[in-house]
Fold this sequence. Notes:
By secondary structure, the chain is α/β, with parallel strands linked by helices. The protein is 44% helix and 16% strand. It has a 7-stranded mixed β-sheet, sandwiched between helices. Helix 2 runs antiparallel to helix 3 (53-61), helix 9 packs across helix 10 (202-211) and helix 12 crosses helix 14 (324-333).
Amino acid sequence: MTLAKVFEGLVGAGAPVEFTAYDGSRAGLLDADLRVDVKSPYALSYLVHSPGALGLARAYVAGHLDTHGDMYTLLREMTQLMDSMTVRDRLRLLTGVIDDPLLRGAVSRRLEPPPQEVRTGRTSWWRHTKRRDAKAISHHYDVSNTFYEWVLGPSMAYTCACYPHEGATLEEAQFHKFDLVAKKLALKPGMRLLDVGCGWGGMVMHAAREYGARALGVTLSKQQAEWAQKAIAEAGLSDLAEVRHLDYRDVPEGDFDAISSIGLTEHIGKANLPAYFGFLHGRLKPGGRMLNHCITRQDNAQPSIRKGGFINRYVFPDGELEGPGLIQSEMNDAGFEIRHQENLREHYARTLEGWCRNLDAHWDEAVAEVGEGTARVWRLYMAGCRLGFELNWIQLHQVLGVKLDDRGEAGMPLRPDWGV
């Protein structure tokens, strides 16, 4: 059996994918728009020794397997098939290559994961210490500001956008997202905003520029903080906006009029949510609002962290996703009165589509900047996440809470006044 036929046998002859291999074999739908090239026998070693889609990801990141055509479309066709690969399927794969000494030798060797894979260890009780959080954040965000500029676009917003209409561009949607947060928080000139996990300062600068608010952002990424401070100065906003390289737990100021947390809660950890929301509640003035914007999962039936999954190993070390109900419950128990929540799941799929398009447009430059292995991680991760949001494997919720004043009043309008 040829190597390409082995792959065809795993996913089925009807899959709209062509398979080619270094041994010259071809199978599947010939001349299809989607193609998988097995460039080395070691691709099989990763597939045999790694569970589900992780083996496919390792083979791709390491360069032993290549793809042609739109990555998102290819994943949509193949992910479910690879995740459902059983022990019997693996035996079939082994049987298919047993007569080839080269393949037999490659499969029998258990390869080390690509260097882009993070080894966080199994000491879960050390997860989310300040030192470990700093390392995890640095792994993901201190890649290259230039790389992020190509992927994210001028907004440098690395969180779900909110599309105001069907024809909106990514930049318009990111502006609308920041404006939606500002309106939900009822920002006004002179108000003090704390933005935790501020990234490259998008919300901080928006609050200062568009609403005249005095905004402080904090991030554990040194590269983000340096980029943001430079952008703030260039925009002439230094009298209103500031970004610090700081753990949110070390913010000394209090009595903020509003707090935004856009894309940080995923890094906090389930066990730390009470302390996290408690800290934010304590930094807020009575009558102040807090907006939590984070990726969630459908429910809490499954573990919040997939220790062996691709995302945890390559993209977000120690990341944990919770169901929206748990997020709201923890906010409520910390003292926030929940006033509004909405799911922006479809918006995140569109956001990722834009980021994938940007990466493909700058592919050669991105490879030169961060290396092909890292660029491959990002192409695979963003296309996979787009698929996850579309298929409702993951969601994105904004939850608005208010800290009641001494008389139990929220100061909220009778009906939401922030528009769509």
